[in-house]
Amino acid sequence: MDTKIITLGIETSCDETAAAILRGGREILSNVISTQIPLHRKFGGVVPEIASRRHIVNIMPVIDQAIEDAHIKLTDVDQIAVTYGPGLVGALLVGVSTAKTLAFALDRPLIAVNHLQGHIFANFLSHPELEPPFLSLIVSGGHSALINMKTYNDFDLLGQTRDDAAGEAFDKIARVMGLPYPGGPEIDKLARQGNPNAIDFPHPKVDGYDFSFSGLKSAVLNYLNSAQMRGDEINNADVAASFQRTVIDSLIGKTIDAAKNFGLNSIVLAGGVAANSALEARLRAECERRGLKFYYPTKILCTDNAAMIACRGFYQAADGNFAASDLNAYPALTVSD
Question: Is 73 exposed, middle or buried (0-12, 13-18, 19+ CB in 10 A)?
């Protein structure tokens, strides 16, 4: 692989407009992220149409800033990697259309990147020594999945969410509790003040390595509604801590079990919910207790970003996996597609 090749990464799957420049597979020259969180906070969540329109406004200034921060010219870019799914279709189309236009204008190869796979590759940017094989737990707003990563371009989906993903459950419970968007970090913050064993919420029971959090979400909502109807005082910190513990119990239990059954000695945490302090701390402690290696990306690389997209694109390109000029957005893409 050419370690000097310059990759432009573009990410617009949800409410972050991002562009990054990588030299080789792991050297970040720039990583620019324009977030829309303040814009969507008053609505309690991302409004797809507003997100798409803001991406249109932000995309070229963000790319220009990434080029400037990397101290290169646009013509120095050797290849262009872009998220084509999963995500919001309108948001994805802004990034895909921009990447296709640049690839055509510059006569550069185009690489279609799966956003969820990109989250795994964020760890390669944080840990230069990391190499496959390993087990990856992806926990994001819309997805929870376990991946047996055999090589850079060969991996198996062991299990995924059947309904609500962990991040989705965090956001929904936070909204009901009156916490601001995004709800995940607010639950994490509030949980630090509570007793994680105060309330015995039911643990999801799903066969194999799939996840399910809709039942747990309903149990928390029923608890809150019942307490309000009885006029009982609700300790929100205890609710947050107990809910968060139950989610983490499920995630870690299946992850450790999969690592044992597949003989994998390294566990990689990825996705936006990877930034949850309790999840990171407990999984790290469990790995240390069992003699497993644990990898976790830096906070900025846990969020949606284009550096991880460029990294994934680099290894796809090294395998000759390029996209055609008629590339389209695929909002329902799964991690194994």
Answer: exposed
